[in-house]
Amino acid sequence: MKKALFVGINRYPDKQDWLNGCVNDVKLMYKVVKQEFDFTTFKVLTNKEATRSGIINGLKWLLRGNKSGDILFFHYSGHGSQVPVYDRTATEEMDGLDEILCNYDLDWNEPVRDNDLGNIISDVKKGVHVTVVLDCCFSGTGLRNWKQTWDCAKSNIMQPGPEGVFLRNRYMPPPDSRMIEAEIDIDDDLCFNTKAKRKPFIITDMNPGDAVLISACSDKQYAADADFNGRAHGALTYFLVKYLV
User: Fold this and answer.
1) Do residues 133 and 237 lie in contact, with contact meaning Cβ atoms separated by under 8 Å?
2) Is 62 exposed, middle or buried (0-12, 13-18, 19+ CB in 10 A)?
3) Which among 43, 50, 70, 230 has the fewest CB atoms less than 10 Å away?
4) Does 217 participate in catalysis according to the annotation?
């Protein structure tokens, strides 16, 4: 079985958080996986449908009944952000922050963390192939299953793109109080540093499934919402589709 879940959020409750290309990303990627890769089963969540429970239940739907030979696909296009770690993630994050997907009804105290996504996706059987595409800021550790390097990367917020292309980052700033609670320092390259000793990311031998993450950026960078010849898209989705077809 070839099964896909798509999430795209342009319209968040606060108008200042609105994006332009996320729903277009969903429509474009849906067309590609259906026509070019023969997927047959789909679930699409856009804007108000893409609540925390909607995304979590959608991921569980995607994994439900998976068996050897299945090909599963998850595409998220929207804002990403960071929140302070909590008890279960405190030993895994050197910078004291968890990366998150920004669902429509975002509660900063209970977001969709990269750990949540990684834990759900890890429930795949031997012989199942999962591809996850995250077109959002801070997405590089979305599955929490690879060893991260801690090299700093310059931010690309609101930089001009190629001629005819306008970029807007897909970062939703958390309330100031949330960042204060993290008790971190921010250096000149916008990299988060603490003196905490970091343990390696979890790479488990218990999961025999095959999961691949395609992310728009590292866990320290912004992703771009861009205008390509008059049509808005996420830069990752746009160029990924150009490569695929």
Assistant:
1) yes
2) buried
3) 230
4) no
In a domain, 88, yes or no: no
What is the pLDDT tens value at each position of the chain, 245 positions in all?
999 999 999 999 999 999 999 999 999 999 999 999 999 999 999 999 999 999 999 999 999 999 999 999 999 999 999 998 765 554 555 556 889 999 999 999 999 999 899 889 888 888 999 999 999 998 887 776 543 332 223 333 334 444 444 556 666 777 754 443 333 333 333 232 323 333 333 334 434 457 888 999 988 889 999 999 899 999 999 999 999 98
Q: Which helix (H) or strand (E) covers residue 32, if one does?
A: helix 22-35
Which of 22, 75, 79, 102 is flagged as catalytic? 79
- Domains in the chain, number: 1
**Residues 6 or more apart in contact with residue 48 via CB below 8 angstroms:** 11, 104
Q: Out of 22, 102, 136, 137, pick the active-site residue.
A: 137
Q: Is 79 a catalytic residue?
A: yes
Domain that holds residue 45: 2-81+99-170+203-244
Does residue 180 fall inside a structural domain?
no
